[in-house]
TrEMBL record:
The keyword Zinc applies. Keywords: Hydrolase, Metal-binding, Zinc. PANTHER family: BETA LACTAMASE DOMAIN, HYDROLASE PNKD-RELATED. Residues 199-360 form the Metallo-beta-lactamase domain. InterPro entries: Clx_II_MBL, HAGH_C, Metallo-B-lactamas, RibonucZ/Hydroxyglut_hydro. CDD domains: hydroxyacylglutathione_hydrolase_MBL-fold. This is Metallo-beta-lactamase domain-containing protein. SMART domains: Lactamase_B. It comes from Steinernema carpocapsae. SUPFAM superfamilies: Metallo-hydrolase/oxidoreductase.
Length: 478
């Protein structure tokens, strides 16, 4: 992929998924309530409309300060809609307050009806303009369609049924699992790696001393149950990193089969069937297995990662969608700054020799992209790791167990503070440190999205006509 010398610095893919998914619906409910309440009680109409305008203006001002490159046409339309809304309200008030024309009762009644019709018309138009204003303010540079679909996926049972269909498609389209089932033996436990869906991983941790069986991110409950039953195991607990259905779809099935099963998770995210809410840096024990939970908002507002401390002193970190081999998770529900704060916190709290067990198999694509995007830096460690991962993936071996110290050498998101990476990506050196890191992430995200599109097009073009449609659909699952 040919890279330009410098990249634009406007907001990119990284921060397109902000807080709209949480706050926008409340606003869209709040506005019509104010409108209809004020229409019912005209004596409060002036106060409510004035309050609405003040609140909306403050919100607009704050957004424009926070996003200096607020799109010009949206800024213009939002201001114009606010002015028009104020004008319509004033016109409506004049009509309502106008004195009736003296004359016959019928004429006066007609006049009152005309006033009411005009008032209702202006009221409806005013509400429409206000709705447009709110929409423009909260759209920012985001796709409102994506935010709406994300809300349906993450907050409703639609996401549950979508994941069920996704798992069936993965079983139908893949000739086998995306990776082999493998295990990593530690002093007092064994970590089994189960491939699920198109690229997910579920982890089964068996305590050899007590016989306890702990699962992390159950994507497919039936598959996990079959795996455990074949070995005579019974699950004791599920550790859910976050609420996305591809990581907790199996909670319902396993909890129905094992009523005593305890699901651990964040109170902010509330994964399905969660009975035990964990706090930041809370330590808890299951059998002889010691875990520490860390609250790492960014991918979701309540994302949690779990650190397993073995008896031999080794550390294993189950990262969900917060951290991947060669990359980090997308920021769906928070600010990029919050994601970087979570990353910094983990670097400070977790030893660098900690092994990473991620929620998805993204290693090969991530490292290939990093190798192309940062080729001018000549990172030999990255090239060596890429060749190693290519060999592993040919054999369908999972890429798990990389350490934080390794990631610090070839993961550009963990090195977003590096001035050389910022220079290659054309980030303005005069910006504050955190802003430079955010712009570095945005530039990397934009490039990676374009690179993935190129790979998708090339892959679909290389497929036989009979299979291109079905195989092409599988790319859309992520």
């Amino acid at each position: 992929m040919a890279l330009p010398a410098a990249f634009p610095t406007e907001e990119g893919v990284g921060d397109r998924r902000g807080r709209l998914g949480v706050r926008a619906p409340r606003v869209f409910v709040f506005v019509p309530i104010i409108h209809f309440a004020s229409a019912r009680a005209r004596q409060f109409h002036n106060a409510t409309s004035f309050s609405w305008i003040v609140l909306a203006s403050i919100r607009a001002f704050r957004l424009q300060r926070a996003h200096k490159r607020f799109v010009t046409w949206r800024r213009f339309l939002s201001r114009a809609s606010l002015v028009l809304s104020t004008f319509l309200f004033q016109a409506q008030t004049r009509i309502v307050d106008s004195a009736g024309t003296p004359g016959a009762a019928e004429e006066e009644k007609k006049h009152e009806n005309a006033k009411e019709a005009a008032s209702n018309c202006l009221s409806g138009l005013n509400f429409f303009v206000k709705s447009i204003f709110v929409l423009l303010i909260f759209m920012k540079n985001e796709s409102i369609t994506f935010r709406f679909l994300y809300l349906l996926y993450s907050k409703t049972q639609i996401g549950y049924h979508f994941t069920a269909k996704q798992i069936k498609n993965a079983q139908r389209l893949n000739s086998g699992a995306h990776s082999k089932i493998t295990f990593v033996r530690k002093s007092n436990c064994v970590i089994w790696v189960l491939p699920v869906n198109f690229d997910n991983y579920t982890y089964v941790i068996t305590d050899e001393a007590s016989g306890e069986c702990v699962l992390v991110d159950v994507g497919d409950g039936k598959y996990a149950e079959q795996f455990m039953k074949g070995r005579g195991w019974k699950p004791t607990a599920i550790l859910s990193t976050h609420k996305h259905w591809d990581h907790c779809y199996g909670n319902k099935y396993l909890c129905s089969k094992y009523p005593d099963l305890v699901v651990y998770g964040s109170e902010r995210d509330r994964p399905p069937y969660c009975k035990r809410f964990v706090k930041h840096q809370e330590e808890f024990q299951i059998g002889t297995l010691k875990f520490i939970a860390y609250h790492v908002p960014g991918h979701t507002v309540g994302h949690v990662i779990y650190r397993l401390c073995t008896s031999e002193g080794a550390h294993c970190l189950f990262t969900g969608d917060m951290l991947f081999v060669g990359s980090i998770g997308k920021v769906f529900e928070d600010k990029p700054e919050v994601m970087f704060q979570s990353i910094d916190m983990i670097r400070n709290l977790v030893p660098e020799d900690t092994e990473l067990y991620t929620g998805h198999e993204y290693a090969l694509n991530n490292l290939r992209f990093n190798s192309i995007a940062l080729s001018s830096l000549g990172n030999l460690t990255l090239e060596t790791k890429l060749r190693e991962v290519e060999e592993l993936r040919i054999q369908k071996e999972p890429v798990v167990g990389t350490t934080i110290s390794e990631e610090l050498t070839y993961n550009p998101y963990l090195r977003a503070h590096d001035v050389e990476i910022q220079r290659v990506l054309g980030v303005d050196a005069s910006l504050p440190d955190m802003k430079r890191r955010v712009e570095t992430m945005n530039a990397l995200r934009r490039l990676q999205v374009e690179w993935i599109k190129e790979q998708h097009i090339a892959a679909v073009a290389a497929m036989p006509p009979s299979s291109s449609r079905e195989e092409g659909d599988s790319f859309l699952t992520e």
